[in-house]
Design goal:
7 helices, DNA-binding, 4-stranded antiparallel β-sheet
DNA sequence: CGTACACCCTGGCCGC
DNA sequence: TGCGGCCAGGGTGTAC
């Protein structure tokens, strides 16, 4: 279920488990995820020390002492299970979707599990990261200070597509997915069906609505990161997956509606989101 | 160029 | 209880 907040949560876990430690062994339990592992995958990792674990959009970047970077994406169903066997509880038995295992020199075992296998891992030279077409095409990080209403306005200017679809475009804003795009639009009281360019003046300035949306995006993402510890099954969403329920906004008697945009479900309140 | 759509893969849920 | 159909939070490649 990974969008930016979940990937950020995973990043923090990996940073704690891996930073400063050496990768002693890499076990690949199958030849591919969404794409095949390179033939030198394990070899390029084993013996290297992890300097840091960073995130760009929904990508995890493990920086290695060799100046290589292990780039990982969780896809739709990827997750990491971190264990520390020495002296503690025994290692959990492997699941059939445990595809990659990293044995760390600090005793941690980092296991990548991904039932749908839409995730991927690849290693690239750190020097090439910025030039990589995937990373070069990414839009601004919504949690960075540099993400202002003006930046959002520039991203939306001239776009005839709907606001919701524009927000899902990683080249416009990096890291928003289907859930948090819906959530942010509800907080900002904006209809997902609005033409994206209507949040921008002719001169390319952000309208008040773009300011509200900028704040809303930041709010829902930060809130999701802060509340990631809440038990699974807890309902953390205002509108996502709430079709037919009453709008949670105080004083709004609207009903959450589901529509399909660009092949994906959008949930919103037609009454208060304009 | 922008957009629309199929596709990659497995599992969970719903209705019959 | 079994089974088919549908749905799922991501990204890419192709066709128009």
């Amino acid at each position: 279920m990974p969008e930016l907040p979940e990937v950020e949560y995973v990043r923090r876990q990996l940073r704690r488990a891996m930073t400063g430690a050496r990768i002693d062994q890499v076990v690949l339990r199958r030849a591919n995820l969404r794409v095949p592992f390179s033939t030198d995958f394990a070899e390029r990792l084993e013996g290297r020390t992890v300097r840091n674990v960073r995130r760009r959009a929904k990508y995890l970047l493990v920086e290695l002492s060799s100046d290589d970077v292990l780039v990982m994406h969780l896809g739709m169903s990827g997750w990491f299970n971190i264990q520390r066997p020495p002296g503690g509880s025994p290692v959990d038995p492997l699941d059939k979707h445990d595809h990659v295992i990293f044995e760390m020199s600090n005793g941690r075992t980092v296991v990548f599990n991904d039932p749908r296998r839409f995730g991927f891992m690849k290693i690239i030279d750190g020097e090439d990261l910025a030039r990589d077409p995937v990373f070069a095409a990414l839009g601004p990080e919504p949690l960075a200070r540099a993400f202002t209403a003006q930046v959002l306005a520039t991203a939306l200017a001239g776009r005839k597509t709907s606001l919701k679809v524009a927000l899902l475009d990683q080249g416009r804003v990096a890291g928003l997915g289907n859930i948090y795009a819906c959530e942010a639009l509800h907080v900002a009281r904006l209809s997902p069906k609005r033409r994206a360019s209507t949040l921008v003046t002719r001169a390319g300035e952000p309208r008040a609505e773009a300011v509200a949306l900028t704040r809303a995006i930041r709010l829902v993402l930060k809130d999701a990161i802060a509340n990631r510890h809440r038990a699974a099954g807890d309902d953390r969403f205002r509108v996502y997956d709430h079709e037919g329920e009453r709008c949670p906004r105080r004083g709004c008697a609207g009903t959450i509606t589901r529509i399909v945009q660009a092949g994906r479900s959008t949930y919103f309140c037609p009454k208060c989101q304009r």
